[in-house]
User: Fold this.
Amino acid sequence: KTRTSPLPTESEGQRSKSRLAMAPPATPLPFLVLLATLLAAAPLLPPAAAAEPEAFDVRRHLSTVTRYDVSRASNSVVSAPAISDECRVIHLNLVARHGTRAPTKKRIKELDRLAVRLGTLVDEAKQGPDTASLKKIPSWMKGWESRWKGRVKGGELVSEGEEELFNFANRVKERFQDLFDEEYHPDVYSIRATQVPRASASAVAFGLGLLSGKGKLGAGNNRAFSVLSESRASDICLRFFDSCKTYKDYRKRKEPDVDKQKEPILEHVTSALVSRYHLKFTTQDVSSLWFLCKQEASLLNITNQACQLFNEDEVHLLEWTDDLEGFVLKGYGESINYKMGLPLLKDVVQSMEEAIIAKEENFPDGTYEKARLRFAHAETLVPFTCLLGLFLEGSDFEKIQREEPLDLPPMPPQRRNWKGALVAPFASNNMLALYQCPGNDGKKTSQDQKNSYFVQVLHNEAPVSMPGCGNKDLCPFEEFKV
Ligand SMILES: *[C@@H]1O[C@H](CO)[C@@H](O)[C@H](O)[C@H]1NC(C)=O
Assistant:
């Protein structure tokens, strides 16, 4: 029997729970389904429909400032993994980035400086001889003030960010019903966050979604749960970027190079803006205006002010400069970026090994962990995503294995896989679901196990195949471990 929905747990809980009923693994049907239509009964769409270009929306091109729901809706093509009806999910690992946050203190100051600069530029234009060009100045720019003016604190999780994590938790609970039907215990459902408020608040928002209705507190029947953090300085699983000196040195050394690589784009866009608006923008102004565009579009849903200054091609180019920076300083650009994430991967594998032992030895419920849920940063999620080998181009995986350097993400209009908006938007996440399948097909499984175990990787809730595992959707645990 073949299913047509790639995410059978959505709105069909009673039928499949966290088991996925599917065709036998030997029939790899390419399912092309628009994620956005999933909730509407998830019809099977012909490839043509999925490939149809959509209207340009700047909100999809904000690199790592992109909102989670926007990113999920842009990620239109998913393949449905074939998981036997008899397999059950027994453990879940989650590594998530915090949700949408306010600009940091440093960025708030940058916007304050921008307000002063824009005032000066407008005044200059008014005093200039060319009165006709005054009409070219966008009206919002006259007397513009930053929305965050006077704020001395920043970087906190905002309510949109809370919602992202809360809603995400509700989908996780629905998708993996069998995993979360047990009574809460901090050792069964381990929730961890870094010692940074937006990350721990994200853990709390997630926990509220996961456990609402399961306790006795207030009208929402909430229950208290614990969020544990390692000390900032020694958190080698979630803040390795902060404790790895080699990385910090690399980053410091590399940042000027990245700026140099971005410069031609900024200069190109700056001269376009200068001639379009007859204002004497500097590249620093344009850099700040692009930052403002991202904040307005992401946090305030305003796209007709700063974002409107740029045309579509310019947005693509500016987005690419952000993605380039992420690639070089956090991603595949240099192996130190992701090798320092190995303790996290080890922690993931170890949690799976423990879950397998618990199953093989028939431990009673409540005595072993079912989920390890971690809330951290883009600097955590991106390296972890790289360790899983996601978002690589054609032969990149082989290059990494041979320790050869990768090419930079190609500049638009060429297409690329590495997009911050897809790799690491706010609340982006990787889930690794461990499945137990009965070993009753005559094949001997390793180490005298009665069952066989498979890992499924989901990036932003979409199942992905693993380049490190022969591009399988379901990776045998023994292979995943290597
Ligand atoms: C954002 O603005 C668009 C119009 O540009 C509107 O359709 C959409 O509903 C808004 N979204 C939110 C979350 O307010």
In short: The pocket of 2-acetamido-2-deoxy-beta-D-glucopyranose is lined by residues 301 (CB under 6 Å). The chain has two domains: 85-102+157-244+340-480, 103-154+247-329. The longest strand covers residues 88-97. The CA atoms of residues 106 and 189 lie 36 Å apart.
